Description:
GO cellular component, one term: cytoplasm
Number of helices: 17
Keywords: ATP-binding, Ligase, NAD, Nucleotide-binding
CATH class of the largest domain: Alpha Beta
Distance between the termini: 63 Å
InterPro entries: C-N_Hydrolase (IPR003010), C-N_Hydrolase_sf (IPR036526), Gln-dep_NAD_synthase (IPR014445), NAD/GMP_synthase (IPR022310), NAD_synthase (IPR003694), Nitrilase/CN_hydratase_CS (IPR000132), Rossmann-like_a/b/a_fold (IPR014729)
CATH topology of the largest domain: Nitrilase/N-carbamoyl-D-aminoacid amidohydrolase
Family: Belongs to the NAD synthetase family.
EC number: 6.3.5.1
Bound molecules: nicotinic acid adenine dinucleotide, adenosine-5'-triphosphate, glutamine
Amino acid sequence: MSSLSIAMAQINPLVGDIPGNAERILEQARRAEAQGADVIVFPELTLSGYPPEDLLLRPSLALRIDRALDQLKQADLGIVLVLGYPKVVAGRVFNMAGVVARGQLVCEYAKQCLPNYQVFDEVRYFVPGDSACVFDLKGVPTALTICEDIWQPGPVEQARDAGAKLMLNLNASPFHKGKPREREQLLAERARQGHMPIVYVNQVGGQDELVFDGGSVAVNAQGDLCRRLPAWQESLELLQANWHDGSVHMAHQALAPQQQDLDSVYQALVTGTRDYVNKNGFKGVVLGLSGGIDSALTLAIAVDALGPERVTAIMMPFRYTSELSQTDAAEQARRMGVRYHSLSIEPMYEAFMATLDPVFEGAKRDTTEENLQARCRGVLLMAWSNKRGDLVLTTGNKSELAVGYSTLYGDMAGGFDALKDVPKTLVFELSRHRNEQGEVIPPSVITRPPSAELAPDQKDEDSLPPYEVLDQILALYVEQDCSAEAIIARGFAREDVERVVRLVDINEYKRRQAPIGVRITQRGFGRDRRYPITSGWKLGE
Ligand SMILES: Nc1ncnc2c1ncn2[C@@H]1O[C@H](COP(=O)(O)OP(=O)(O)OC[C@H]2O[C@@H]([n+]3cccc(C(=O)O)c3)[C@H](O)[C@@H]2O)[C@@H](O)[C@H]1O
Ligand SMILES: Nc1ncnc2c1ncn2[C@@H]1O[C@H](COP(=O)(O)OP(=O)(O)OP(=O)(O)O)[C@@H](O)[C@H]1O
Ligand SMILES: NC(=O)CC[C@H](N)C(=O)O
């Protein structure tokens, strides 16, 4: 019998920072070696980060990767490195996993299953591999696979047939609600199918609209979960295995708890916001705090992501802003300990109207005046951003973005929208959930009916179906691709469905100009939903 100590390195690489990622790899490898690990496993495309998108098309890619691999080979490590990188071979790019041992690249495996659905478009960049890679790891025949390879039955069966007794699987598997459970079920099935344990290492952290939860795990050949790393943080943990009677055996070891859905979604929003702000070098964030629930939840996320000292909230009252909105906003800012200012938009609104009145020639009031209020606020927030170097957080939720219930260059002006993929009903649930950990949002913000306060006594539900109904229709239409008729057949009022579906379709132009935000569902308004703006498609079908 011999023992094998496997370090699982759940790291947060920075996309494109190949030298920096090589340093991160070396730092983790030295730590793992000092703890006695034989091998260290990193996530998919460790050197480039995931997804590198069109950086993969840059002419200097091969040179940069070769330089980093040379640095790793020359590092004089006693531990075996298993890492991922894009590899250019005769002008074709492979999504590669490589094993570096004793200063040599001892074997390489090219990903065979290239995901090309939802947010993934690997076929645009990579050529698939066609064979298993089994190498000797302290006497154990060990196979490599990369992320999507494990979502299909082929590569595991192929590795088993090639004699592998252990599988190391490198991942960049983005989060959506429910995904951690889905992955663990899948891994159990694959381990049983391959008759071998699988060590699954995922990356963690935010990358533009994607967020990676980590949640790396190891399952034994029977499909039992033996190890789970904590979600939403970098983690380096050692996994002990024994090799005897021709099999790798793993006992149950520490299992970080699996989170409830609301916890994991909230953490996804916090992680996505934090990494966007930090990785893009912003000092902090600023947002308009209206006393409504969207900006309240966005503020809580920002503070949990960055700490109160990096967050500024600005209330910008107008004649329709209620007293309650102003006291709630000030109270929430106090509870969260953030910088708070109140800047009236009355004078600038009046100045715009005075300029426009002669050319509008007494035209009746409509949404023009409402949008002007939102745009005055957008101008102030962007001025703060320019002067102070803070990123403007917008606050639009998925329901609003779906139906175009927001103002271009007004409340849509900004750089990042934490709630972009969060339906309004989930905004309420998350706000209550956050308050259970400490009441940071004044309860009246959660209990009062939502209003844009752009006209006297305005309520969102005067112009939209109730959010419970709206969100169900949107989930069916946007996330599940149902037709309007199919949604009506499920019992929703024809009038509501036709109106909502029409609004979704005609507001594509607005979403194309919206800031990016954290994707937490299987279908966000981003990389995974690409509709033409100019389109003759009959609405809603
Ligand atoms: N296909 C297309 N391609 C490119 N641009 C297109 C376009 N169609 C219109 N446009 C442009 O877009 C303009 C219309 O968009 P926009 O100016 O945004 O204005 P619009 O969508 O007409 O109005 C904003 C709506 O959002 C509501 N709102 C505003 C602010 C906050 C909230 C809230 O509660 O969160 C709700 C407000 O009550 C109103 O119903 C048009 O005047 C035109 O310039
Ligand atoms: N009086 C205000 N002071 C500061 N910011 C405001 C004010 N009114 C609106 N905003 C900004 O514009 C965003 C959209 O606000 P609006 O009230 O129109 O819609 P909402 O979707 O109900 O948002 P919220 O629930 O945050 O009020 C707000 O989240 C906030 O960032
Ligand atoms: N990077 C990948 O291959 C990811 C694809 C995979 N199905 C996942 O989401 O986990």
